[in-house]
Amino acid sequence: RFALKALVRDLTTRGPLAGATLDVYANHTLSTGSRTGPGGEALLSLPYDPRLQLTLLAKMEGYVPTTLLWRTSKRPLFSAVTLLLLPQNQGNIWLFEDTLIITAKLPDSSSQPSVKFPKDLLTLAENASVSSLSAYLTVPQHHLARDCTNCTPAIIGNQSAYRNMELRPAAALSVRLCSGAEELQVRGPIQMSLPLGHGTGFRPTDTLPAWAFSTQTGAWEQQGLGIVKMINGHMVWTYTASHLGYWIAAPLPT
Questions:
Q1: What is the pLDDT of residues 214-228, one digit of tens each?
Q2: Cβ atoms within 10 A of the Cβ of 98, count?
Q3: Which of 44, 36, 39 has the alpha carbon at shortest distance from 3?
């Protein structure tokens, strides 16, 4: 075994985050976990095996979770790593007779990300009203890199035969809907629309795989194919998701 010190910080302020949860996955099976102390640090004792792929998952209420793939061909005596958590952004809610729409608070409304689903999928507690609703729609940008400095771990297949890979996301979206302090689990056809950056090389009608983050495996799992469209002069990735949560659009590695 070896000692690993993990420091969790706020991505925007770089301040340490106390009380963040750290989960460690060995070959995509949850192995151990811890919480950060007042200085945002946690000390973990981890097994070393060159056949093991370790993934660290940092998460905290009010932040988008982040992962770090840890591996080395030599047995370490000690390791220290830093994980940066992006604060969630509050989104706008538009509730109509038949539809609920969540949009991001961006100045350019013609290219803003949006999430839309039928109002029938919204289930509130008996004593709750629509005025208790709040939404968070965050568009992470920090891991959208051309190289694999910030690639994120993914898997395809089943538990008996996972195929590991590292993705280079073209776009990312984290969306949550809450009623008071309760997060709502919305299931059903959810239409996502996410602008792609300039110079991505995608063209209208291109398909781009959709991946959802799984806390069971600590990795991204492919869910289907999204379609690239030209909308109001902007290249946009569209996808019909089965649930809210954390999603990315990323091509399969070549």
A1: 999 888 999 999 999
A2: 8
A3: 44
